[in-house]
Specification:
Structural class: mainly beta
Helix content: under 10%
Largest sheet: 5 strands, antiparallel
Oligomer: single chain
Distance between the termini: 49 Å
Number of strands: 9
């Protein structure tokens, strides 16, 4: 995810994943004042059940502890083609968890 800071803010930030399905986790990530990009790793446990749903990322200012916001993501193309998007941004991300079980083997002779 790309970090866009406003007004010259250089406070340390903490990114946490919210509303993850059972069996899926993400370690909180601390962002230093000059960082421009960070990767968030979602990890499904071996017993995580298949699911589909919305999750989000929360950003907390580590200096002003009362300041917390959901991360917002732009949906439009990087280049301006075709005008405005109907929904230009969102704070909701979609996650699909599939099974890690091997496909059932074909029964011989059938």
């Amino acid at each position: 995810m790309t970090i866009a800071r406003l007004g010259g803010n250089t406070n340390k930030l903490l990114i946490t994943a919210t509303d993850l399905p059972e069996g899926v986790s993400a370690k909180p990530i601390e962002i230093k004042g000059k960082d421009k990009e960070v990767k968030v790793a979602l990890v499904a446990s071996a017993d995580a059940k298949p699911s589909n749903g919305i999750f989000g990322l929360s950003v907390v200012d580590r200096v002003e502890t009362n300041l917390q916001r959901r991360a917002v993501f732009e949906l439009g193309p990087k280049e301006s083609r075709g005008g405005e998007m109907l929904i230009p941004e969102t704070d909701k991300l979609w996650l699909t968890v599939t099974t890690n079980a091997p496909a059932a083997e074909k029964v011989k002779g059938k």
